[in-house]
């Protein structure tokens, strides 16, 4: 099976689908978490995968569909996903393979030789000027030497083999090592038995030949040939199999909103996915409320809000979080506040809230996220369609920025008033904060008391506010618990770190003027961890 990792399967990334199908069985709500899909798109995707024979329907229990992988799906889980490349690159790699075979065959101490190499597949045919793999058949044969000479070489090879190899492994060790050398030429090489050519009837061409009798390279046959395709037992056609697939009825509309105002109270995403799936598959509001343990008016209000969900906003990265998420802003009457936090060794946090006028008042709706589908939703369901697309872009922005903050903490906050809309995307490259790691941790070490106890180091941190003016504070304790002390670090006491910060601000001056509060943190726990290692 050849799968290009860049080509979607029924709209799903092959890598994501491979993870899902690695489960023995799964329900549609479980698939929603893996595929990051909402209803009815989730059920439509499951049906499409079933019709393309990747999954099969096992049962429907209490309006929940259950699935399992088919043989084709199982083959996908065992398949290496590839990235396609130009045919000319593949043919250049074949030249390197031939050079490696010549080097192998020039070794006087080896008891085996590369006798023949056959090329087939997309690198040979090159129909679309791109290839997914370099398909080779490499034949290894024993040298035609006098028995005493051959035995001497074999005994010398066995003496070099690991002691833990069993009898059969020793018999094929030399051949395996030679094939491994060929495979190491490129990760794009796929080695096949000759039966793969015979079973598929694929065209092939000899690209290397070696005469064992004369111990010299032989002329290759330039003709592209085919073998007679092996007769195989016929299986029912896919079309015939499709004719017995079960039919599914999906609700096409969402319920109307209840007359009374309803509020969600700390509901996680898996529960919301279940509500959606139950409704789409025909359950009524009362049954969904009983299944989830939520009030009927709350279930109805949430499901009604799904009618106002638009198409996902395309993610276009900008160094400014504010500019990135502003692309998803919709007309609204309230104030939206967004906070993103990242800390070494901990889950990231994206917190999006909606207020009637300003963040000094209680929020009306809120989403807090710690993992791709680990969301906690609270507040009025009818306001969720306003903040969900903004929240999703913020999460994607954070995922893109994580490598550029390795070892440091990040906190970014911003907000939008009702009259503020999308902003221009002018800075497609991330701000790289990694040059700050060494100077900031050296400064933090210098700030630590000499007689500090081993575990007390976790109480210390440096907090840098990248604004005007630039400010560095040394905190002891956890500010969130109200038991922290803060002391400002003067420029004269932090020359090395100050120079690094100034250089960063100068390099990314325009990118960091995005109208958001950005804070970088160096944690004492990272020093303690490094010392223990």
TrEMBL record:
InterPro entries, sorted: NT_sf
Protein name: Polymerase nucleotidyl transferase domain-containing protein
Native source species: Sphingomonas rustica
